């Protein structure tokens, strides 16, 4: 008899059979959450990171691509984009937000998404890319294939969240967005993070 077990969301699930064109996403938080959850890297369970102190609620599903890691390869892409103050990746799985018109009530789930672009975010000298994707077959967003096709208001809403969610009202910005990139570069970031994962944890 095969014992039941739960695969670790980071290490026990692939990035997707057709990645980087379609990727698996482990969703940690959803737009209705007033608490920021994140994966516990040891156990694989969701844990409370911190309550959200202000009204900066994530405007999309948010999580990471399994079997990715952001270090030297991801850092190189940031430097190629002109970020001359970057010294490393953020040593975390690759972040991804997924646009969907559906009201998903809680994280801790797995879904497939199509990367359409992303933000080259620099946080305290660390490359901290945020991939933007759409949920497969979503009625409102599923047909988009590049971030340039999104309404500007949707892009600005995502950018505003990532630029402000760590800040107190009277604090200077702790991070910046070096560039907004399209689907082709997003796929390069995904592949780079997969190489960083293999270098760190093995194939």
CATH class: Alpha Beta
**Regions with little confidence, pLDDT below 50 for 5+ residues:** none
- The oligomeric state of the chains shown is single chain
Anisotropy-based shape: globular
Helix content: 10-25%
> What is the residue-averaged pLDDT?
93
The Cα radius of gyration reads 16 Å
Distance between the termini: 28 Å
CATH homologous superfamily identity: Inorganic pyrophosphatase
How large is the share of residues in beta strands?
A: 25-35%
The main sheet orders its strands as 1-4-6-9-7
H/E element string? Answer: EEEEHEEEEEHEH
Q: Could you tell me the number of beta strands? A: 10
Main sheet overview: 5 strands, mixed, barrel
CATH topology: Inorganic Pyrophosphatase
Number of self-contained structural domains = 1
Q: What structural category characterises the helix and strand content? A: alpha+beta
GO cellular component, one term: cytoplasm
EC number: 3.6.1.1
InterPro entries: Pyrophosphatase, Pyrophosphatase_sf
Cofactor: Mg(2+)
């Amino acid at each position: 008899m095969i014992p039941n077990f739960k695969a670790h969301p980071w290490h026990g699930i692939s990035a997707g059979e057709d990645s980087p064109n379609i990727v698996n996403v482990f969703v940690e938080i959803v737009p209705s959450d007033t608490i920021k959850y994140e994966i516990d890297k040891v156990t694989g369970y969701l844990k409370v990171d911190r309550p959200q102190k202000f009204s900066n609620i994530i405007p999309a599903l948010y999580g990471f691509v399994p079997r990715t890691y952001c270090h030297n390869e991801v850092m190189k892409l940031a430097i190629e984009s002109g970020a001359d103050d970057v010294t490393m990746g953020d040593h975390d799985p690759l972040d991804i937000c997924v646009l969907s018109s559906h009201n998903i009530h809680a994280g801790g789930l797995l879904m497939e998404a199509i990367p359409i672009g992303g933000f080259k975010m620099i946080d305290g000298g660390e490359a901290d890319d945020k991939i933007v994707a759409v949920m497969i077959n979503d009625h409102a967003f599923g047909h988009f294939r590049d971030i340039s096709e999104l309404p500007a208001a949707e892009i600005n809403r995502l950018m505003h969240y990532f630029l402000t969610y760590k800040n107190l009202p009277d604090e200077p910005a702790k991070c910046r967005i070096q560039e907004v990139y399209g689907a082709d570069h997003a796929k390069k970031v995904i592949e780079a993070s997969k190489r960083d994962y293999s270098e760190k944890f093995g194939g």
